[in-house]
Amino acid sequence: MTASMRMRGNMHTRVEELADEYLDSAVILLSELISVPSVMGEASEGKPYGEACAAVLEFAEQELSQEFKVRNYDNHVITAQFDDREPELGILCHLDVVPVDGQVWTTPPFEPDIRDGRVYGRGAIDDKGPAAAVITAMRIVRETGLPLKKNVRLILGSNEENGSADIAYYLTRDKFPPMLFTPDGNFPIISAEKGMIRYAVDMPADIEINGGSVVNAVPERAEAVLPCTDLSAEFARFPGIDFSVENLENNTMRIIARGTGAHASTPEQGKNALTALLSVLSGVSETARFMSQAFPYGETDGASLGIRCSDPKSGGLTCVLSIAKTEGGSIRFLSDIRFPLDKRSCDILTILDQRLHGRDVFVSEPHSVDEDSDFIRTLLDVYEDVTGEKGECLAIGGGTYVHDTEGGVAFGAEWQGSDNHMHGADEFIGIEELRKDIIMYAETIIRLCCEE
Ligand SMILES: [Zn+2]
Known about the structure:
Blueprint: H1 3-34, H2 51-65, E1 69-73, E2 77-81, E3 87-94, E4 113-115, E5 118-120, H3 128-144, E6 151-157, H4 165-173, E7 179-182, E8 185-186, E9 189-193, E10 195-204, E11 208-211, E12 217-218, E13 221-227, H5 232-235, E14 242-247, E15 252-258, E16 262-263, H6 273-280, H7 286-294, E17 310-311, E18 315-316, E19 318-327, E20 330-339, H8 345-356, E21 359-364, E22 367-368, H9 374-387, E23 393-396, E24 409-410, E25 413-414, E26 428-430, H10 431-450
Parallel strand pairs: 3-6, 3-7, 7-24, 8-25, 9-23
Antiparallel strand pairs: 1-2, 2-6, 4-5, 5-26, 9-22, 10-20, 10-21, 11-13, 12-16, 13-15, 14-15, 17-18, 19-20
Helix pairs in contact: 1-3, 1-10, 3-10, 6-7, 9-10
The structure holds zinc ion.
């Protein structure tokens, strides 16, 4: 064993001791963060994302300003760093959360509850728990007394769940440090994210069709209103979909289709109620026939649109018809398409425009980071040392907080095989997970910023 390995081993033990010592304070900090219901609200003077998002940043500013150099970017973002030097490592977290509308929780979502070794509350895993872990890790690094050769900047945003306008604002005032990670994804590392297109098509409303509620999900429910016809023989073709029919006035009826929702980046896990309904209706509606030929039920790779493609790293293109909304004389359809790393949006859009004559409403190019950099190799080393498991870089269909940054990766904080109910009812973080996160991030800072 070399002297430097021995020193590293001693330091690891010291970090573990400090993590045990600081764990209660991390749980208290997380509980305080959860207590601020930081769902996006109406903008007002100095509060770009509403009262509660400004309040959670102001709380964090208070909490950190004794120990760190803190700066508030007009309540879009706050930053905290060890000293005034130009930072070389950036850690990007967010303190805003998604709403709890329609969810049934065991305990109130904004009153943190500790039970069964877990902290329950909205934001526990996304992303307040990971933020509390990073803050605690920074405190531990300071307590070790190790000299920091490189400065660290924690960046706490407040608009991740609604388009990351916080980051756009921050970038008008400042830049990201050259090494950047976010604990707002999964372990080990997410280094590649597919590109995304959201595409709108307007079609004549020859009957009334509505379905889906958010563009980034397989729609669970869709319905149509049309003159009474017997379509029950059609229903049998879709065993995964539950159809029901209600008779309405004036010899009309409503058909309701219920399937299974899924995230648009993993559409094969869902059963699309809207595309099933369109297929059922294709004998009675031109619009339904056209759309169901372009988006056949059960197809999630865009084959019928002519956009099927894949690359070895990120896998295949995914395509979901997610929303239909009838308004006035037309139906607006929205689809969500995730395309592989080796394509640009224009490759896909050219084909969609020819086939569907619609328009893009949102476009984001793929994001990928060189896996052979010293930065990524160090993160993987830390992961392997802390967990004893093999580290690897992953590619995903979703977009993380670093999607539009140069060279940023997601590093945690969801552990493989654990379901923390992110965005759902009874969201939680395990206290043991929180402890491991603290150790991981403290070791990361030490390895990247204290060692040679
Ligand atoms: Zn998040």
